[in-house]
Structures are given as C-alpha cells and as structure tokens.
Amino acid sequence: MFQALINVLVKCKSFSELKQIHALVITFGLRHESPISSKLLSLAALSGAGNIDYGYRLFSTLPAPRVFDWNTVIRGYSISKNPNKSFSVFIKMLRAGVFPDYLTYPFLAKASARLLKPELGGLIHGHALKNGFQLDKFINNSLIHMYASCHDIVYASRVFDEMPMKNIVSWNAMLDGYAKCGDMASARQVFDLMPQRDVVSWSCLIDGYVKNGDHKEALAIFEEMLVLGPKANEVTMVSVLCACAHLGALDQGRSMHCYVMDNGLPMTLVLRTSLVDMYAKCGAIEEALYVFRGVSNGKTDVLLWNAMIGGLAIHGLVNESLELFTEMQIAGIVPDEITYLCLLSACAHGGLVKEAWYFFECLGKHGMTPKSEHYACMVDVLARAGQK
DNA sequence: GCATTTCCGG
C-alpha cells in the first residue's frame, strides 16, 4: 500500500494531482505515516508540482517532523522568493530540539547567499563549527560559495585554505567567486592551478570573461575547451552565445547553435532565450523568430518573449514588436518592467509618442515603478518626436 | 531518502 502510493507520488506532475493525492492520504488515514508524508512534503515543497507555502502548511500538520522534513522546508524556502523564511524555520527547528545535520547548513548557506547577507552566513558558519562540522566538505563548499557570492572573497579563501581535503567543487567555488568579484586574473590563476577541471570549471571561467566584458577571451577559452576540455553543456553555451551576441558574431553564433544540435544538448528555455537574443542582436531576425517559435506548445516565459520583442524593437520592426506583445498577453504571460522597456524602445524607434505614454502608464498600473531606464526611454521618445 | 559549483531578457 505504502509503496503503491509512493509510486503514484513520484509520477505526480501537477498541483491538482498533488492535491488529489494529499486528499487520498488524509482519507486513508496515512497522514502520520512518515515515509508517505515526507515524500508528499518534498514533492510539495521542492518540485514544480507544488509550492513552498503549500509545503509549509503540510509540514505544520506533521506530528513529529524529522530532520529530513525540516531540511526539506528550509531548502524549499532557500530557493523561494523569500529565503529569509529558511532562517525562521531553522530557529523553530532548534527550538523543537531537532539537531541540524550535514545538509541543513548547505541549504542555509544558499539562503544567505541569495539574500546577499554574509553576516547571516557567518552565523551559520559558526553554528556548523560549534556542532563539529568543521571538516565537512559539503558544508565548507557551500560556505565558500556563500561568502564569494556575497563578495566576501577574503572569507571565502580563508575557508578554502583551511580545508584539509578539497575537491573539484571547492576549486570551482573559488574560481567562480573570483570571477563574480570581477577578479579575472585570480580566477584564471585558480583555473590554472586546480588539479583537474570539469565542465563547470570551464563554464565558470568562460562566463567570468563574458560578465567582465572580455567577450573575445571568452570565445578563445571556449575554442580551447573544444580541444582540451570536456564536452560543453547547455550552460556553457548560454555564456558563449552571450559573447557572440555582444560581438555581433553571427557566423560564430550559428556554429554554436550547430554545436548544441550536433551534441544533442537539452534545449532549455534559458538556452532558447540566449539563441533568440544572439540571432536578434546579430541582425538575423528570421532565425531569431525561427528559434522563438521553435516547438509549438513549448514552455515559454517572460524572458523569452522579452528577448524577441526587444530584438524586433532594436531593428526598427516596431509593429511586429507591438503585435508580439499582444500575442504574449493572449498567451497569458505577464509582462515585467523589462517588457515595458522593450516596448518603449520600440516606440522610440517608430516615433510613437501616444503609445509610449500608454505603456509608460501601464507600468504604474501593474504595480511597477518606472526606473531611470524607463525615463531615459521616454525622454528619447519625446526628443525624437521633436517635443521639449 | 534531501547534497554544495556554471546559464537567459534592458
């Protein structure tokens, strides 16, 4: 009976299915059977079928949650909109007398990193040390990443240096840390020094060069990777496509696209967005549209639509851009402030003063505050229309 | 049984 239910749970794909199973569990009085409720909780809190608030409500009904359950909720919040809640759950956990384990801390480190609060991460660090986890590789690696993400590279390297046994993840965390802090010389040094390199190491280095504006070097490293390194993955390709977009290197961009297809890399939404953006920036609107339309009924999000709407706008295809916006709303995608920025830029190109004002007002009506970029665009619209 | 690292649009 248990196993049958767990098998059903694993296959659960949507929120409504999840709720049905939840109802079933309650009806059969299995709510307090820990293997079932734990599995249900992790599905609710972590998978695409649920959401963390639902997960937390479910968690609250458990008579005696175990470390596993606490970790699930802390982890769920660490990747949610509000990572602060990971800490409130952690405090409740301590008050309930449940001892944190080697997975509790990495989730809390992640929450600190996402909040950009190294002070908070430092407290977690101290807590882990006090509880005898000073040699734990998993915890230390997540702490390195936490400090580095918070631009506290001195602390990150202190943790790194004090680790008696480092693995490739430790090295990658340092490499990425330096890159994120804009210190590509040190990042490169770490890369050259590390005992072995995997696809993440190469991707970190390449993306570091991209983020620091050295697109040529990023592509040069990628070429080197093709010869000496591991196979690139879809994450690597996102960075190199960004480099091609910045350089307007259409031919190279096309060959990146070929690499993706030839190697059967998963066409994730992120990758599709990068391809659309690259083609659009390189002036290949037809190809951008081709990738954008891609699989019919495929998943889309606001970032993908923004890339296409913005791509049309910068090439002066004003009507096409505005029509795509209409289509996007019909598709049920909610625009964000970048969408409006793209639309305002389309209006600037087309001299559409009235439409620009309309979009500018929409911004406020949908609870967004115009930022300096929006004002700049409006000034541009009015200046081009010859108004003062 | 949960695990840390790389990626998208202005």
Structural write-up:
The chain has 388 residues and is mostly helical. Among the domains are: 213-296; 300-388, Serine Threonine Protein Phosphatase 5, Tetratricopeptide repeat (Alpha Horseshoe), CATH 1.25.40.10. The chain is 73% helix and 0% strand. It is built from 23 helices and no strands. It has helices at residues 2-11, 15-27, 34-46, 52-60, 67-78, 84-95, 104-115, 118-130, 137-149, 153-162, 168-180, 184-193, 199-211, 215-228, 234-247, 250-262, 269-281, 285-293, 302-314, 318-330, 337-350, 353-365, 372-384. The radius of gyration is 24 Å and the shape is globular. 42% of the residues are buried. The model has no long low-confidence stretch (mean pLDDT 90). The structure holds one DNA strand of 10 nucleotides.
How is the secondary structure organized here?
Elements: H1 2-11, H2 15-27, H3 34-46, H4 52-60, H5 67-78, H6 84-95, H7 104-115, H8 118-130, H9 137-149, H10 153-162, H11 168-180, H12 184-193, H13 199-211, H14 215-228, H15 234-247, H16 250-262, H17 269-281, H18 285-293, H19 302-314, H20 318-330, H21 337-350, H22 353-365, H23 372-384
The protein binds one DNA strand of 10 nucleotides through helix 3, helix 5, helix 7, helix 9 and helix 11.
Top keywords for this entry?
PPR_At4g14850-like_plant, 23 helices, DNA-binding, 388 residues, Serine Threonine Protein Phosphatase 5, Tetratricopeptide repeat, Pentacotripeptide-repeat region of PRORP domain-containing protein, 73% helix, mainly alpha
